[in-house]
Queue: 3 jobs
Job 1
Amino acid sequence: MKVTEHLSTAGSPIISLEILPPTKGRGIDSIFDHLDPLMEFKPAFVNVTYHRAEQVLKKRPDGNFEQIEIRKRPGTVSICAALMNRYKIEAIPHLICGGFTKEETENALIDLNFLGVKNVLALRGDAAANEKFFIANPKGHRFAEELVKQVADLNSGKYLEEDIIDGYKTDFCIGVAGYPEKHFESPNPDTDLYYLKRKVDLGADYITTQMFFNNAHYYNFVNRCREAGINVPIVPGLKPLTTKKQLTTIPSFFNVEVPVDLVKEIMKSTSAEAGDKIGEEWLYAQCKDLLANNIPILHFYTLGKPMVVYNVLKRLF
């Protein structure tokens, strides 16, 4: 079932989740342990992030160094298959530009279609760990809008090989990212919105937002999108903030504001349990407000704190 169908047919608010593949060397049980408790709330779908390979230097026996490629979090496609099999749930893989050729992307889409995956989230992706700025694969895409177009082309039966006539038409529902506080590389919010509309015009069916901790940013973002002629569903992205370290890492990495009141409360915490409770209360208040304003879906970036999300959902539903 497509995300847009979930949103249009839901009789009550729905929830969705996002997870990371485990690091190489860990098993799928770490994912199941993470998600099993949350299945009580019947999430409509689970997003699975994709991570590009990284270039690292490895010392050889002769003392010289060689550059090798490693992928720290492999398995996005297979995890989607495992989730669909275990939970009978929609799994949404992230597709990213970084590190992939157009041919590799097309083949991944074909595999996903064979698996019965109905939705994809098309993202540019972050710069590699050894890069200051994003550098595209020479045979890949530089921007998310190009990736959106490739998926939309496949939905129309247009493949990279021009001699494929009357190619099979896939039917992916295409999601893209939106930034209530603008993407950190964008010079201003209006430019950011301009490129978001381009993605929608090229075929994006819905938007999932970057995390935010002040609901006013989300409401303002939705209003500005509507004024700009962006009329697809906009899914709010929510994350528990529970530690003092996150007060620095989250704003710097995701370019989002942490409200003063939340900062003050986290700074008072003297234990991990206390921090979790503060994060739970803040997230619960955000969710209550969104539901009171008739937002039909809550999307949670669980990222290592599934029980905080569980406690919030238990109180909400």
Job 2
Amino acid sequence: MSDFHGLGTALVTPFRDQEIDLEALTILVERQISASVDYLVALGTTGETSTLTPEEVKLVVNHIVKVNAGRLPVVLGIFGGNNTQAIVDKISQWPMQGIDALLSVTPYYSRPGQAGLVSHYRTLDKITSRPIIMYNVPSRTGVNLTSASVVEIATSCPNIIGIKEASGDLWQGAQMIRDCPDDFVISSGDDQTGLPLLSLGSDGIISVISNAYPEQFGSMVRLALQGQFDKARELHYLLLDIHPYLYAQSNPAGIKACLSLMGLCRADVRLPLVSLDHELRKGLKDAMQLIP
């Protein structure tokens, strides 16, 4: 079993005229493998999973697994929601061939308290045949999984091996790193604060920007994990002006615009998201031209 340290890329789902573009998806997956990222994350938020039909979800997962052909670990991000039993049923019924771990976002909208969140993950821990990485992203879910709750889960749920921590709160991240068991994987889910969290001792980053810049961002992560922060900072600053454009509109409009400017896929997103507006796209293009 992979330990899921290092860089995981949260893959986009490319569209062409609102249909899934499998040719572009092949190109994107092969590019990540060629850049030596550590693992792939399929159908998380960046994959616009909430806009896909069940048939399209299977199509995308199967295609990524086929193209990858076992070369990198694959984390599947479809196992979230605000109905614990429904997630249990999905995990129990999903064919896991080619899937190495599950990414499970904290329950959203219903805004459970910490006791409910802990019980939710304890329930998932008991039924899975694959390791689970939790996903804490309060800006989207409306609820924050506190460091104390993460420690409680990490020390009592053997099948829950890590967390994608995307609160952007470095103090909270530092508490998790300090207090969780050494073998519990703590990855940043926020590109902009990923390097600071690495400097505090985190284990890697699950990234959006690495869809477009896997070599540069991957090198930054590897250098930081090796303690070479002077060199890692150079790459952090190289990409610094790209980040705001990726999140000026809801993700993945920005990263898809970036990929389209690189000629890798179209910028199409599905409603209720819309493509990056003209002025933001122009600013993004200008920022990209400064990167060698």
Job 3
Amino acid sequence: MENVETNKHAVTLKEYGKNIQRLANHIVGIEDRDKRTQSAFALVELVKQLNPHMKTENDQKIWDDIHIMSGFALDVDGPYPKPEEDLLFKKPQRVGYPKGEIKFKHYGRNIEKLIEKAVEIEDDEEQETAIIYIGQLMRSFHSTWNRDNFDDAIIIDDIKTLSKGKLHIDLEKVREMGLFETNTRRDFKLPSETERSSSGGGRKKFNGGDRRRNGGHSKKRR
């Protein structure tokens, strides 16, 4: 590594500017360890005053940056360990792509996950509630891709395909009662693992809030 003195005019972290860089270099040259440590603490406070947005951040970032500006030559009794120099040159880990292809890209992977959860529901009525909610979502997604050629039968066929034939709902019932109409949508959520384990007999529920089923419709309160 180059000596700090030979590189004292270089600005390592431009967001701090030349003056902070010079102070960091100066502190490295202080012979007395206690004075050097006090000066480093003072520099951290100065950085926070000059950069008010950093007052809410963890001081460790500022200390790490001062070590970087000093070329890792700063030897003080700081509150945090000196960062490893090798970390600056490590390549970031690759972000893995989701495994498995999405069957219907216009629905997205979240619909597939919802269907997987709906398959696990044991109560028939609750499972139908889940299917209706998923069908409403799928219809809204499908309509953005193809507004002209649309039928509820398409959604039901896609649900059967994605669930591998495990989810069923009567087409005539869906059409007659408009179950997949988005203007009848209610807020549903899949139960968390805690909710499932605490429900009676391990039964998995698809929570429909205060929804009272009346052939698939909610009664409006007046």
